[in-house]
Amino acid sequence: MIEIKPGGATLGATVTGVNLRQPLSGHDFAVLLRALGEYGVLCAPGQLLSAAELAAFASRFGKLQVLSASPATEPGMPEVTILSNVVENGKPIGTPDAGQFWHTDMTYNRESEVGFVNVLVAYAVPTRDGRPLGGTEFANTQAAYADLPDEIKLRLANATAIHDLNKSWEWLINVKKSPRKPLTPEQRRERPPVPHPVFLTHPITGRKVIYVNPNFVVNIEGMPPEESEATLDFLYRHILKPEYRYVHHWTVGDVLLWDHLGTWHNAIADYGPGEYRLMKRCQVMADRIFDPSFTRAALGIGGA
Hints:
It comes from Pigmentiphaga soli. Keywords: Dioxygenase, Iron, Metal-binding, Oxidoreductase. This is TauD/TfdA family dioxygenase. The protein is an alpha+beta fold. It has a single domain, classed as Clavaminate synthase-like (Double-stranded beta-helix). Helix content is 24%, strand content 28%. It has an 8-stranded mixed sheet, covered by helices on one side. A hairpin with a 6-residue loop joins strand 14 and strand 15. It is globular, with a radius of gyration of 19 Å. The two termini are 21 Å apart.
């Protein structure tokens, strides 16, 4: 029987009693979905899924992001990304620079294509002196909203912020010295800046989350630039307070799910080039979760 064991921190729970290689029953999926909204980060240890098994499991939550074929994707499976610093025969077998900054994924897309769930499987975890490296840190944007001053909640209740992929892309090139090339004019047209509410209602819990992040947000619409910058800076510093943060320390075979809508994450780059870290990932988009009929049925509400 599936069991969810909270870890006692602001985020995080362990999932046992379920085989993720097999299709989930309606009951088990409902338990998992509720726990994802409630605890934000779920770990099912000891389940070294293949790329195909990973994609099959992740697709239960929604449409998978598909990337163009490259060394960063599983051969023949562009929906499975390889996150790795492993080098074989002088060539990298994945992309090593992904996620080493605070963000939540794909907020630069329209609502149905923003990130909903990230699902990762750990194949190699670097260690040093018996200590695992390359952890993933999270921040709880549901808890952070709940603790905001009432004046801020009221002032920003109907505010929207502009999210733009190009902001992050240029930062990676200019600051992180990523070898990626600037977005072409065509790519910019395909991913224009989009607005999202500053405070989003979480479709699983019904609670508000702070839905802005420093990686993609350009400004708050309708605010003077100085006020927008100061307001965003306040929200970012608030979210990153220690009481809202949690670190997952990986073990080989971990299957980790996290909810993009209610969390930020940051891949901790505390390991060297010879200390190998290898993950495979599926990104699930929010094409279903904002549909009330899907969510009610998935959660077993109303007899569905």
